[in-house]
Amino acid sequence: MAAEKLAVIGTGYVGLVSGACFADIGHQVVCVDRDAAKIERLRQADIPIYEPGLEELVRRNMEAGRLRFTGDTAEAVCAADIVLIAVGTPALASGDVDRSQVEAALAQVAASMNIGTLVVIKSTVPVGTARWAETFLRERLTQPVPFAVASNPEFLREGSAIHDTFHADRIVIGADDPAVAARIAALHEPFGAPVLITNRETAELTKYAANAFLATKISFINEMANVCDKVGADIADVAAGIGMDRRIGPHFLQAGVGYGGSCFPKDTKAQLKIAENVQYDFRILRATIEVNRLQRERFVAKIAEALGGTVRQMRVAVMGLAFKPNTDDLRDAPAIDIIRMLQEEGADVRAYDLVATERAARELPGVAMFDDAHAALEGADVMAVVTEWDAVKRLEPADIKRLLRQPIVVDGRNAFDPQRMAAHGLRYVGMGRGATNGKNRQTDLLV
Ligand code: UDX
Predict the structure, then answer these.
(1) Separation of 412 CA from ligand 1 center, angstroms?
(2) How far is CA 20 from CA 55, 160, 170, 231, 297, in A?
(3) Is the C-beta atom of 299 inside 6 A of ligand 1?
(4) Distance in angstroms (rounded) separating the CA atoms of residues 407 and 396
(5) What's the pLDDT score for residue 142?
């Protein structure tokens, strides 16, 4: 692999993690952000997001002289052979994708780009964006220098972003010129992942397809869990049973309060809109989104039912605020909606999270925040599990029983073994754990 000079525009999850990982495999990387305060922090290796291992990775590569940060896009683009665009693409009120940050980045690239610069779009963007970007750049160039625009969507997960980059399932490259595709493939070579080369539109759509499919898998298992509740079956065993079928696979079959985060909610809605814009009604995806919304309501209803019909004047300990463990990200976190619903229905809510309480406090007035799980449980009428942090999963049933005012656990992530909870005198309500209550689980022996 030849070491390349890279400029990465945007230091969010995708930009910062990819930039640091590309530096780690030997490339020369400059990360750019228009937020001067953020750049100042990053220069001190002070990482603005909670991502395990990232600080060490950034520090190591800064010290090795392969990674630096600047607020000056022109300077970074001038010095680069490859420019990665990794800015945010939030949703507009219409449901369409807001490409304004991509456009602003491209305008700056056009002003300082070299001969032969390769512009790679990593942000999740609607089909046609790379082609549009090429026209946009061409129209703005002061001199007609050759350049190329390619698509290279990012599939990393928050909380395991570095691992996902170094152990990627695949690299998807969308480029019209085989030489351009080969260069992007070479850039990734040390990661050792299989490479799929296709045209730009296909690469762009592949990203949405992946997220839409995974979200659908989650909503499917959640609907299955709801049926389990009604017929007395256990969703954990159903998931294990279907997951052993290689055509289905065991991943993303964890029933619960549904998906959240910065990607699935946004990208599923964007894909629905992209289809609508070409007069296609993407029915499955519409149902996926609706099921995910309802799942949060169902969880609140389960808490009320467990408490005898209402949460009014009940003290509810919500365990976990971040949309999933190992992140402090609260974007579209199920806990936010759930807590608001509980408050509307008159509950006294207290919440635990390992890292997100400070941020959450701003969004959730009236909630007592705890970064100690035991303290959150003390005197509560019910423990409601929303995020399966290790610190929550490791809670001892005996301690839960001792701390709670009423021995009730409503587990929105199926993080506990129903039988073990029952053995300690706790009334346990899971998501689709049915009447089997975890008994006779033969699958544990098989997997
Ligand atoms: C996701 C995609 O996995 C990643 O490829 C893409 O680049 C960005 O979006 P991320 O949002 O970081 O990554 O989280 P992920 O681990 O995929 O989980 C998303 C949500 O689904 C979480 O709220 C999680 O709790 C939920 N989930 C996941 C389930 O409810 N059940 C499951 O079985 C799996």
Answers:
(1) 15
(2) 10, 14, 19, 50, 40
(3) no
(4) 13
(5) 82
Residue nearest ligand 1's atom 17 by CA = 157
Q: Residue 171 is encoded by which pair of tokens?
A: 């690299």
Tell me, in angstroms, the distance from the centre of ligand 1 to residue 161's CA.
Answer: 12
Residue 271, both tokens: 């894909």
Strands 368-370, 382-385: pairing kind? unpaired
Pick the atom of ligand 1 nearest to 260's CA: 23
| 3-state SS assignment for residue 429 | strand
Query: Is residue 21 flagged as an active site residue?
Result: no
Ligand 1 centre from 213 Cα, in Å? 11
User: Using CA atoms, how far apart are residues 234 and 254, in angstroms rounded to an integer?
Assistant: 12
pTM greater than 0.70:
yes
3-state SS of the chain: helix, strand, coil percent to 5?
Answer: 45, 15, 40
Residue with tokens 């304004």, as numbered in its chain = 100
Instruction: Tell me the pLDDT tens digit for each residue of 21-76.
Output: 999 999 999 999 999 999 999 999 999 998 999 999 999 999 999 999 999 999 99
The single-letter code of the amino acid at 282 is F
**The two structure tokens encoding residue 238:** 């159903």
What is residue 435's predicted lDDT score, i.e. its pLDDT? Answer: 58
Compute the mean pLDDT over every residue in the chain, rounded to the nearest whole number: 95
CA–CA dist 399, 118 (Å, integer): 58
